[in-house]
Amino acid sequence: MLSEVIGFKRLAVRLLPSSFLMLSCMILSFIFIDAKPAYTLPLSHSVPVRAIPAFARKYGLPCSACHTAWPELNFFGLAFRDRGYQLGNERDSPIWQNPSFWPVTARMTPNWHRESTDQQLTDAVPGNPASGFGPPGTVMQHGFDLSGMDLWLAGTLYKNISFSLLPSSDSTGTFHFENAFVRFDNLAGSKWLNLQVGRFELDNLISEKRFLFLSANGGFYQNYHFIPLGDSNTFGIGDNQMGVALQGHSSNSYTRYTVAVLGSNEGGVGFTNSVTPPAPANNFTGRDYDVFLAFTQGFQTGSLGVQRIQPFIYYGHRPTIFNQTVTGVPIPGTGSGNEPFYRVGVQSDFFLGKLEFLPFFQHARDNVHLANSVPSNTPLSPGMQSAIWNGGFIETHYYVNPKLVFTQRWEIVRMAQQGNTATPSTQGNIDAYSFGYRWYPIMFSRAGLAWHMEYSIVKSIGMVPLSLNGSGLPPLTSTTPVWSSSAFVGFDFDF
Amino acid sequence: MKTNIQAKSFVLSWVLALVVFLAGATSGFAQIDTNIHAATKNMESHIGDKTGHAYGDGQGRPDAGVQLYRRYCVGCHGAGGDGEGENALWIDPKPRDFTLATFKCRSTPTGTLPTDEDLFNNITRGFVTTNMPAWNALTEQDRANLIAMVKAFSTRWQTEKPGTPIMIPPETPANIDSILHGRELFEKIQCWKCHGPEGHGDGPSALTLTDTKGNPIRPYDFATGTRFKCGATNQDLYRIFMTGLDGTPMPSFSDNIKPEEAWDLVHFLRTLQVSLKTPELTTFQTWLKGHPNTLKPIGQEVPPGA
Amino acid sequence: MQARYALLPVLFALTVAVASVGPAPAGTIEGKVTYTGTPPKMKPIDMSKEPTCAKEHNPPLLSENVVTGPANALQYVVVYISAGEQSAQPPSEPVRFDQKGCMYVPHILPMHTNQPLQIYTDDPFTHNIHPMPKRNPEWNKSQPPGAPPIDTKWGTPEFIEVKCNIHPWMHGYFAVLNTSHYAVTDNEGNYSLKGLPPGKYTVTAWQEQYSTQSQEVTVGATGAASVNFVFKVTPYLY
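ok -> structure tokens follow
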């Protein structure tokens, strides 16, 4: 094996010295994998991520024109989206398109992955539940798999009227509408007045739907979905919400704002908030509206690039009381006893030439009733209080060229105040680290293909780490850290 | 058993890694597949206080314009800058061929190279009714680098100097005398042969027009009111017909129109943009109401000597 | 021979140009350019969009892409020395290109690189002159009636198509050459390159539809050599 490694390295030196970084990255990732005994839960669902070769086909621009590395948008792509998927050259209306143009895109990632979680209780005698629990151990699995699929339609209906419709499936083909909205741009002739109605992603400068991680542990931002243990809140700033957004931007989109009014059912349809998957804990809507405000400002800094910063605040309510039938069945759409929560923070996007930094910070607070899952008409027990936590991450991308990007991310969540004074102060704290690279062997204007490798590891105290697998058992004690890791290699294709 | 599985997966990992690495290495994924003239690698552009570079250090390190070009431009303008990108076939009007160094929108006389600022303004503004978007979301430094890159595709930039921008005198009042004189010019210098008597882009020669590469091209239809390819202001309009749009049938009139007359033509052309309700149009319409049947229709007079 | 030259002002101008170059006229290369195959039929030019010209040319002129003469002669073929010449200095005398009755006179104008070129208009309406070079800078200028001639020159050898976009049938060529020894064949396909010192030369013939042909020839001390060219023609234009 050693000689193989040496031979491999020699080959690398001969072929392409500049790929050493990638090589060591690969070696490291596999050493890591092997060092930690692993297991895999089937990757039932991957956070859908977005890039639309349909637009590349419409306008003839290569993927890299709108994406730093697809699906992440660059300045130009952001300006394009802010204009309502228009270049603004009087050729955006569908009447100018070839009649056979159909703005649809499919994306999927056949992959091989390997998942491992420790501190898992299993049968003392495997396969025999009667034997009782053995000592906590590590569960590892690996195998070939599919990601979920996106079938995205987006385009213009007319000049200054655009739409997006994204039926998204999990890997078994179970569909939901990830987003669906219509957008009206340049109201009253002003680029500062654009209206979007439907289900859409919040205007996060650091978009989780367009980011460069796919593995079960790394394929989402912990901070975008974190809810403390025992909290009945369903909100995640990374979840698509349903409502109406007023947005505006300067001509180069360096200055932008969003004011959104959103239903408090977490993007759910009908009068339930049955977001599938994953189904939130409480499938009942409140009758209230949330507000999201964000303002983005970009600055040019010479050859370094554009630096952008976005303060944001989300203020909303979630119900705590659910009417039930006499037989105790909750009635959908009858949630009441709304209790408030908020998220406030700063997202930014800094460039040092080819190096991109994406720092994120968030302060979060859930009302005491939410934090303890106590209906608002029920007296609180002593020791109950609001849940408060802080979190953040720094993500880094290094763009070797438009066809190769290295990524890494370090993320933490820290509880500042537990919902109950009896809870250990560290329970729920998360540390997560991911790294990987994406290589785009082809980069043209019709379709996209990426080779994706990623390793991700998460430590979560007293909780099963949040994962796209969505499974696992909590540890024996509330102060025990649980480690979970993912290794992921796949071909991410997009047509 | 467990060890066996681990060993297998370890080997599998290595095989996968090796396959992708070899694939990547042999296809040269760390390279930028853009071909420019070796002699022009150290091409620079100067826009204000910004200096743009085609190659980062002039030594062949593709860190500046060439990489940006690969990222944003290559799909239409092609790896060789010849306007034969993979999408050129589907695009009308066709992408610019940088190897000819012929550019529509210039501040310089016909037949001369544009200034760096001209090119910078062009990519910042984009070209309306074409596939060329406004690249104003890119930093000024990136745009400057791209200009250096555009220049690297033709050696003309090494042997010739950009032309001297034409002088544009202060605009004269847009009164009715100016408009009427502009109308005479419009007829005399035969603008209407292509742009049509009413400026609808339907003159007798309109259907025969091709650009230098033989592709059909339409004259501007003033009635639509879309902004001009080379800008939206009266100054831009002045510049368009005094410098000509090189590479297209639109000639330069700078040898034949005096500067003050040129403003008259500008003012008349504005009256043709009926959908914009320009102040010039209002002036003209007011005058027309008081002088019915005074003006002969354009293009219907018998030419002298007939 | 002299009578033939008199047929075409262009060749007359050429002989003047050729005669003025070179210290001691020594040798001459003469020959004839013919075709095999079926040449395309030249169509009558519809000038109805410029009534003055339509009246002037009645019956209408034929287009000039492939002009043939008696005995399979091919007219408007540029024949020139493409290699073997010792020195080539651009003459200071300008060559003249005219716009007359909505036609270019001559249809093909050969010239030395950097030789002054004057473009005149005799017509009572505006033309635009739009040369479309690939290697020289492209320009496009309007020239209204009575305007002074446009003074210009070309620095790089190239066959440059020139057209008037206002009158799209107007179509001609500037043959910019690195030599003063050139000729354009007359209606009988004849040409003559004069004033060549003894030596070995490459003679090239260029026709706008059928590209170039070259032959090597040696001009001896006594002076005369003969080179004929045969172009294979097709019954369609491309």
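Chain B has eleven helices and two strands.
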